[in-house]
Design brief:
The complex is a heterodimer. Helices cover 38% and strands 27% of the residues of chain A. Chain B is 83% helix and 0% strand. The two termini of chain B are 25 Å apart. Classes of the chains: A alpha/beta, B mainly alpha.
């Protein structure tokens, strides 16, 4: 459906996108992931024909965006980072305008009513866009992209500025749309991509650094599973005991977070499973094992490794974790 | 093109801009007409002569918002990613401004009817006046449109277009003052007022028609190229 080959975009001396190639199949939901300023929006702007690439080609359903722009653009619905709204129009006037602009052939009133129902903007239908909240504006932006029922939807950070309930609604909407459309969606929030997309592309500094499913990405990085244990026992003795278990490479003390317990990090040798031994040896000494969990690499950590942003590890993790929890609620 | 035309034409009357411009047109033309009528000068051409200056200063207000506001509010992303040609976008906006402009002196028809009650009139001269005014407006709007496409700020667009209007206004006088023959010749050739005045005095000269049409076409073409260039920047 979408074919991108050797895409590069140069702004003066700054190389915003560098040699990016990928394809998107019919009906796929693809996530575009990258830190701020990675080049996500630039790529999306090129895909939709708003910007022209310095090098490379974009084909939508076989139509080159530069050579036959009208045929290509007809197949795309685009929600840019800032929804392109005329603030001095009502929602109705605006959607009618977009309908006329796109030269849609579907029955006008039923088509627009259907879209409004889908993105839940019926109650603001006759209000001026100027007076709408950010969340509603975003939805009008999505409605605008849906007009004409294009095969491809390109959504640049569609859930930015929405509250958690709206985020879930929009996410469900995208899942729903994904059944009948090809969707590309960008975000710098991993949980969002994870929740919606089958496949993801990670971009950093204009370069494509990963292109795979979420599971495969985690698998690639799962070779070093470590364990975290919470044990009710004297820290030094437990440390000694744990270190003596066969298959354990290193043990480190993490401190005490609960009264009368101590937390440890256990790194096993290669892929040795030491959980059973840990339990049995602790039981012998009557030091109850209260918690034991595998430290699977989260998508966040994979992302960080990939984007090489190890310096800011701590706060990045927390922020993402928060939004993740928020969204899950 | 029609969608953009409709949207822009309506936009003139959502914001006060359209009303303000129309009010000024009506005020000045009404004033000129009444004083002309009192003085016993039943000739619509006099009115059109005087409207030249007013047109120069009202057109920038009509055009300042046309392209700049879209860029500032990022609505251009919707326009440029829709399956429409750049030229349709520019032409839609151009004709919307021209339509409002034309409304601005629709009232001269009433003046002409009043005059024709008292003296016999040559309607062709009136037609020539209207066509001359439309051509003048079209070329000025095209210039304003280009300047609006070059900036994101309405104010800069308005001031820029005013400056060009001033230049057009002063060109003839300037050429006289400087007094270099070559300069005079050039000024005479590009003089808006000279060509406009020939037109409204009832002389239909193809070269004047072609002049105004080409000015409009060139500046509209440049506006399209400006939009195109933005994609490559």
């Amino acid at each position: 459906m979408i074919e991108v080959t050797n895409l590069s975009k140069r702004y003066g001396n700054h190389l915003a996108v560098s040699d990016v190639s990928f394809t998107v199949k019919d009906g796929e939901i693809l996530g575009f992931l990258g830190p701020n300023g990675a080049g996500k929006s630039t790529i999306m702007n090129i895909l939709t024909g708003y910007l022209s690439p310095t090098v490379g080609t974009v084909k939508i359903d076989g139509f080159d965006i530069l050579e036959s722009p009208n045929d290509a653009k007809k197949r795309i619905g685009y929600l840019p980072e800032l929804p392109p709204l005329y603030l001095d129009m009502t929602v109705k006037e605006y959607l009618y305008f977009i309908y006329d602009l796109k030269k849609v052939n579907l029955p006008k009133v039923p088509h627009i009513t259907e879209i409004c129902r889908l993105v839940k903007i019926e109650e603001v239908y006759d209000r001026l866009i100027k007076n709408l909240s950010k969340g509603y504006r975003q939805r009008v932006g999505i409605a605008q992209a849906l007009i004409g029922n294009p095969d491809v939807l390109i959504l640049d950070e569609p859930t930015v500025g929405l509250d958690p309930k709206q985020i879930i609604e929009i996410r469900n909407l995208i899942n729903h749309l994904g059944k009948t459309h090809t969707v590309i969606l960008s975000s710098h929030i991993l949980s969002e991509i994870q929740a919606v997309c089958e496949r993801m592309i990670i971009i950093n500094k204009g370069k494509l650094i990963a292109d795979d499913t979420a599971e495969n990405l985690s698998k690639d990085f799962s070779e070093d599973h470590s364990l975290t244990a919470r044990i009710a026992g004297p820290s030094k003795d437990v440390l000694k005991l744990l270190s003596s278990i066969k298959g354990v490479a290193t043990v480190s003390y993490l401190g005490s977070r609960e009264k009368d317990t101590n937390d440890f990090n256990i790194d096993p040798i290669e892929s040795a499973d030491v959980r059973r031994d840990v339990f049995e040896r602790l039981a012998e000494r009557n030091w109850p094992l209260l918690e034991l969990k595998t430290n699977e690499l989260s998508l966040e950590q994979i992302f960080l490794r990939l984007t090489d942003a190890s310096d800011k590890d701590e706060d990045f993790d927390i922020n993402n974790f928060k939004s993740f929890k928020e969204a899950k609620r | 093109m029609l969608a953009i035309f409709k949207r822009e034409f309506k936009a003139y009357f959502i914001s006060p801009v359209g009303y303000v411009v129309l009010a000024f047109f009506l005020l000045f033309s009404g004033y000129i007409f009444s004083s002309m009528f009192m003085a016993g000068l039943p000739d619509i051409t006099v009115l059109f002569q005087n409207m030249f200056t007013i047109t120069l200063f009202l057109v920038p207000i009509l055009t300042m918002r046309l392209m700049s506001e879209d860029k500032r509010q990022k609505v251009d992303q919707a326009l440029l990613t829709a399956p429409v040609k750049l030229s349709s976008i520019v032409l839609g906006k151009f004709f919307a401004a021209l339509a409002v402009f034309a409304l601005g002196f629709a009232n001269t028809l009433i003046f002409q009817i009043i005059i024709s009650c008292f003296v016999s009139t040559n309607w062709l001269v009136y037609l020539g006046n209207v066509v001359g005014m439309l051509l003048l407006g079209a070329s000025l709007i095209a210039i304003g449109l280009l300047i609006s496409a070059l900036t994101e700020s309405q104010m800069v667009a308005a001031v820029g277009t005013f400056a060009i209007s001033m230049l057009i206004f002063m060109l003839d006088g300037l050429a006289e003052t400087i007094g270099i023959d070559v300069f005079k010749k050039v000024a005479e050739w590009v003089s808006f007022s000279g060509r406009y005045n020939t037109f409204i005095s009832g002389v239909f000269d193809y070269s004047n028609l072609i002049f105004f049409v080409s000015v409009a076409a060139i500046f509209l073409f440049l506006a399209v190229r400006t939009l195109e260039k933005k994609r490559w920047a």
